[in-house]
Amino acid sequence: MKIRPLTVRKVAQIVFFLLFVLTVFQATYPFKPWLPPELFLWLDPLTALTTQIAAHFFDVVFILALIVLLSPLVFGRAFCGWICPLGTVIDGCDHVIAPKKARDYRRLRPLKLAILTAVIILAVCGVQSAWLLDPLPILWRSMGVIGMAFLFLLVDVILNGLIAIGIFPGTFGNLQDWLSGYLFPVSNPEFGGLFAPLLILLIILGLSRLTKRFWCRYLCPLGALLGLVARLSPLCRIVNPAKCTACGVCKHKCKTDAIEDDFVTTAKSECILCLNCKDDCPGEAITFGWRSPKQMANRVDLSRRAFLGTGLAAVAGAGLLKINKIDPRQTDRLIRPPGALLEDDFLERCIRCGECVRICSTSGKCLQLSVLENGLEGFLTPLAQYRRGYCEFNCNLCGQICPTKAIQPQSVPQKQTTKMGQAIFLKDRCIPYRLNENCIVCEEHCPTPEKAIKIITKEYIDPVSGDKRIINYPYVDELLCIGCGICENKCPLNGEAGVIVVREGEERLIA
Amino acid sequence: MDRRKFIKTGAILTGSFVLGVPRILGKEITYPDLVMVKNGQPAEMIRQAFNMLGGVTRFVTKGDSVLLKPNLSWDRAPEYAATTNPELVAEVVRQCYQAGAKNVIILDNTCNDARRSYDSCKIPEYAKAVGADVRFVRDNQFVDTEIPGATRMKNWPVHEEVFKADKIINIPILKHHQISGITSGFKNMMGLVGGNRGRIHRPFAENIVDINRIIKPHLTIMDAIRILRRNGPVGGDLKDVERLDTIIVGADRVLVDAWAAKLFGVNPQDVEYIKLAHAAGMGQMDVVKYQPVTYSFKA
After folding, report:
1. Are B9 and B58 part of one and the same domain?
2. Chain-wide mean pLDDT for chain A?
3. Taking 80 as the threshold, does the pLDDT of residue B18 lie above it?
4. Which residue of A has its CA nearest to B205?
5. Which stretch of DSSP H or E encloses residue B169?
6. Within a 10 A sphere around the Cβ of B296, how many other Cβ atoms?
7. B131 and B26, same structural domain?
8. For residue B51, what are the domain limits?
């Protein structure tokens, strides 16, 4: 039996998608990955470019991205058609929602070049935009944060339901514990403001309602970048004019609007080598082979006017974004992960892939994707929210997993002395101060070897009854406090805790 | 088996045989209700304690489902004395199975992340090796329970296993605690309840006693092999850890805690919840009147 090349492409797509899913699953406590969770992001040339340009640094792992960046010299945009996991997800979605008859928005083809221009110019201006426009961070975030939490909820609801109605409760209980040992945390993570990242994903997928692979055809700057390189590729769609009946099936089947109206010429920057045209050609007129790069090829270009316009708009946008900064003195509750770079560097490097948030959700559960708490520029960056979780004293995983080292990797002892913020007591809320009753749950949980929360013991005389009692009043030793937030998290008060962590005294690292 | 072990085992076997003879002859002998064993390895100390108490079978009968409640609550290695000694727990599991227990379950509602705490404290590792059923605690396993006789906590979510198990064995570790001076057996029962546990701290003593009204361990094994002197109950500094190589075992949970307090250097009269528990008729607290039978592996 002859294996169709189309089948090979589909299998490759599934394999790479599953590898991507594996990297998501591996970003968990206990952290023993045999495939680095950052792998796909290190392979992403757009991430490599924007991050290194925006934050002015060079990291040797991004040499991996050169493989993908240079791959079109030989294989054209095969990355988009065969490997890109977001492309695969979009393909899956297209089966359901794309119109049966492909529609072309041919005028929009250069749009992705304009977006690429904007992304690069924004990076030059020090604005990171990968979070909105780079397919791999978008997909990682969507699957790692939303997808995994949703999957966990689903599994939990099903297993709890089966246990509750008494169907093999022992077996399913053991299964639940086994899953907790390897895949899922014991209790489901909760997130606030998930609508924002979800909306971005849904828009990208929903655009397929207009025509299949809309994102890849007209918007994706990574596709545009690879397309630029692909122009030089000798790999090319060859149409045998003797066999071609100009039936137009190939153009109709093309995923990316790469075939020109004569059905012979191909826009190399658009073709993702999906092989649909070859497979469906009734006359078997289409082959793929090596030719001089310009033969039977058409170029998609951005006009000079559009290029300049986009560039200026990007510069203006970057400027506006920088003006739109939130007042740093108003951000005293915005706690960054331990080992985060200085705020400006952090914002330039953070690609909002959500890896830190995902791995934290399996440990201390404090990291959340911000929405607009720290301004538009900080959109979807990680923030520690201590009423939802706290920073586990022995955990340094967010720094281990950050693909761009916006959170610097630190050893556990280093991280244990990196101050994320400062705990302060709100004396009009804290129980011992407000009610003159003992509590000290915060002191009990304080994890530093010498407790940062200390106690003054005083005798309290009730002014009405005259009863005497011994009360422990807590206070913070600011030199010992690392701002891990377990005090704020475990405070038994409803609503705002009696002890909160503020940014004052936070220690941020220099790259 | 080396010579030392041989002699020790021999001595224990002979001892139990000699103790067993009077029973065969039809004479009723009484076993102590409180024992203290010192200066041995964790496993041999608990074996010795059970021998002195008249065997595990006095507490665990054939076919029992036993709930063990050691302290697994913190993401700390055993050396830090924040969690119960894993060798001690493993030996208790083994003894329970030898006594014919159907099932030995270990669980704790942890303070740090459950998986981290279970991994760091090593108890699951040691206990699973000898066949214990170590489980994570999940929210849906708590049952809202009325607490008869409670002074403060009229009802509270309690873990379902408390009601399913035939026997409960409490294996706390002796540690410093800011409110009560020490944390011991009574406080360890907090790991079997859910809800907003921080609220239990006010007023601490009353609530702790209330929890113990509904959760009644049949046996308390106080781990004072390593104790945490300062910065309890989580610790984190080896300088705060002191080796006492001692265990106290007894069925009277108040008395075990009272002796634990004494061992720690705190007058049981100064520990509020011990006084309250005694007043509520849950056990004795007079450490002068009720002395443990003591055995030391070193002279």
Report:
1. no
2. 93
3. no
4. A438
5. strand B167-171
6. 14
7. no
8. 32-296
Which of B136, B159, B182, B188 best tests the A interface by mutation, with the highest count of A CBs <10 A?
A: B136
- Mean pLDDT, rounded, for A389-413: 96
Report the chain A residue with the minimal C-alpha distance to residue B237. Answer: A449
DSSP label of B196: -
pLDDT bin (cut points 50, 70, 90) of residue B25 is: low
Residue-wise pLDDT for A155-177, tens only, equals: 999 999 999 998 998 899 999 99
- Main-chain phi, psi angles of A190, to 5 degrees: -120, 145
A100 pLDDT tier (thresholds 50, 70, 90):
confident
Beta-carbon separation of B135 and A177 below 8 A: yes
User: Do B250 and B158 share a structural domain?
Assistant: yes
Quote the ipTM score: 0.91
Query: Which secondary-structure segment (H or E) carries A383?
Result: strand A382-384
Q: Check whether residue B63 and residue B142 sit in a common domain.
A: yes
If DSSP codes are grouped into helix, strand and coil, which group holds residue B181?
Answer: strand
**Alpha-carbon gap: B113 to the closest alpha carbon of chain A (Å):** 6
Chain B residue numbers with beta carbons less than 8 Å from the beta carbon of A362 are 115
Q: Residue B289: what pLDDT?
A: 94
Domain A419-511 fold: Alpha-Beta Plaits (3.30.70)
Residues B39 and B21 placed together within one structural domain of the fold: no
B111 touches chain A (CB under 8 A): yes
Does A209 reach chain B within 8 Å, measured CB to CB?
Answer: no
Residues B9 and B60 in one domain: no
Cα–Cα distances in Å, from A396 out to A337, A357, B234?
10, 13, 19
Count of domains forming chain B: 2
A181·B237 Cβ contact <8 A: no
Across the interface, whether the CB atoms of A29 and B139 are under 8 A apart is answered: no
- CA closest to B139 among chain A residues: A187
pTM of the model: 0.91
Which CATH number does the domain housing residue B81 bear?
Answer: 3.40.50.11440
Give the number of C-alpha atoms closer than 13 A to the C-alpha of residue B234, restricted to the C-beta side.
24
Least confident of A13-27, A253-267, A393-407, B212-226: A253-267
